[in-house]
Design a protein that fits this description.
The complex is a heterodimer of chains A (114) and B (114). In chain A, a hairpin with a 3-residue loop joins strand 6 and strand 7. In chain A, strands 2, 4, 5, 9, 10 and 11 form a 6-stranded mixed sheet that branches. A 5-stranded mixed sheet of chain A has the order 1-3-8-7-6, with no helix packed on it. Chain A has no helices and 11 strands. Chain A has 114 residues and is mainly β. Chain B is mainly beta and 114 residues long. In chain B, 0% of the residues lie in helices and 56% in strands. Chain B contains no helices and 11 strands. Chain B is globular. Classes of the chains: A mainly beta (114), B mainly beta (114). At the A-B interface, strand 4, strand 5 and strand 9 of A face strand 5, strand 9 and strand 10 of B.
Chain lengths: 114, 114
């Protein structure tokens, strides 16, 4: 399944399936992008990041894809597990902007059915 | 040690109280951040400290007063808050404030203003 993370939609997937979470970013000058996972009652946890000179980066069970032409970012989670249930935020960091400022997307809530 | 710690975990205060939130990291990071997060919403940046100096204030009301006593500690002093200030307050740190390094988040302080 897939979803667009513009206003906290919910993505529901079956355990073992692949998940795709999408994010549209706002600034064509952004040069760094990051995905965070936030479980209930916890702070955001780093998942994976990517710089604008790349279009794909893989981690353990996760892949981030960057399409600068359409300002689109996606997070793919392979073999989704119940422990993946959380809210996922993308964030961008515009180049030459107020240093250190991350601009967060609205988030997508992932629910994994056992 | 890749951890950002925050105290207290929960805080309930009246509108006339003065309280402080504390954040600590021992990763040698020189940039530290305060965010405010409402339920089902992304974190909103409040302040950025870089090398113990305030570098960004996102037009936060003066009833919130940040302080960075040293490179490992960050405080947020609260005075005369309003009920709408009730939220999760997150602290984060990163190597630099250039925006091209991941920010590590603490678990947050859940603040309730009565």
């Amino acid at each position: 399944g897939e979803s667009v993370g513009l206003h906290l939609p919910t993505l529901s997937v079956q355990e073992g399936d692949n998940s795709i979470i999408n994010c549209a970013y706002s600034n064509s000058a952004s040069d760094y992008f990051i995905w965070y996972k936030q479980e209930s009652g916890k702070g955001p946890q780093f998942i994976i990041d990517i710089r604008s000179n790349m279009d794909k980066r893989q981690g353990q069970r996760v892949t981030v894809l960057l399409n600068k032409t359409v300002k689109h970012l996606s997070l793919q989670i392979a073999a989704t597990q119940p422990g993946d249930s959380a809210v996922y935020f993308c964030a961008e960091s515009p180049l030459y902007n107020q240093g250190g400022k991350l601009i967060f997307g609205q988030g997508t809530e992932l629910s994994v059915k056992p | 040690d890749t951890e950002v710690t925050q105290t207290p975990k929960h805080l309930v205060m009246g509108m006339t109280n003065k309280k402080s939130l504390k954040c600590e990291q021992h990763m040698g990071h020189r940039a530290m951040y305060w965010y405010k997060q409402k339920a089902k919403k992304p974190p909103e940046l409040m302040f950025v400290y870089s090398y113990e100096k305030l570098s960004i204030n996102e037009s936060v009301p003066s009833r919130f007063s940040p302080e960075c006593p040293n490179s490992s500690l960050l405080n947020l002093h609260l005075h005369a808050l309003q009920p709408e200030d009730s939220a999760l307050y997150l602290c984060a740190s990163s190597h630099e404030r250039t925006g091209t390094y991941e920010q590590y988040f603490g678990p947050g302080t859940r603040l309730t203003v009565t």
